[in-house]
Specification:
The chain is 14% helix and 40% strand. By secondary structure, the protein is mainly β. The protein has a single domain, classed as Immunoglobulin-like. Strands 1-2-9-8-5-6-7-4-3 form a 9-stranded antiparallel sheet, with no helix packed on it.
Length: 167
């Protein structure tokens, strides 16, 4: 019986030491700098229409649709290139939101080449959405391409986001 109590104390002590060690590791502070594309709207106001955090700016390049594109209809074809580590199992998630951030469609982009590389790999994808989810009074939405974060750690999440305008 004494052996079990000693073993239990040792295990609890090791778990406590591990917990303390993992919490004492400092994660690097990521400085968020924006690479933005700005357009001038009809009422002479400027609006940020593309956002890529500095941590992702050298990881993904989106060719289509373009930030601020005004004729988006279903389905949306998404093309570009991303570094291989943006993907997991050759895919990465994509979301489409309406003007108030409500997700109206989700899908994936797929790498069109060897994705287990640090080089850029072409990708494509398509999102189908229902036009009834687009209100008549505001045709603005956002396309968000996230990295496939297989670790699940929030500090490894990255995304590229752009404003689009529905037909």
């Amino acid at each position: 019986m004494t052996k079990y109590i000693i073993a239990l104390v040792v295990v609890v002590g090791l778990m406590g030491a591990s917990f303390w060690y993992l919490n004492s590791i400092k994660t690097p502070d990521i400085e968020i700098e924006e690479e933005e594309v700005v357009v001038e709207e009809e009422n002479n106001t400027e609006e940020k229409i593309s956002y890529v955090p500095s941590s992702a700016s050298d990881l993904i390049k989106i060719d289509s649709p373009k930030p601020g594109q005004k004729d988006i209809s279903s389905p949306i074809k998404i093309t570009g290139e991303a570094r291989g580590n943006w993907f997991f199992e050759a895919t990465a998630p994509v979301m489409l939101t309406n003007w108030d951030g409500l997700i109206i469609a989700e899908g994936y982009i797929t790498a069109k080449g060897e994705w287990m590389t640090e080089d850029f790999v072409p990708f494509e994808g398509e999102i189908v959405f229902d036009t009834k989810d687009i209100p008549d009074f505001n045709k603005r939405g956002s396309l968000i391409i996230k990295n496939s974060n297989a670790s699940g750690l929030p500090e490894r999440d990255m995304a590229a986001e752009m404003v689009i305008f529905f037909k």
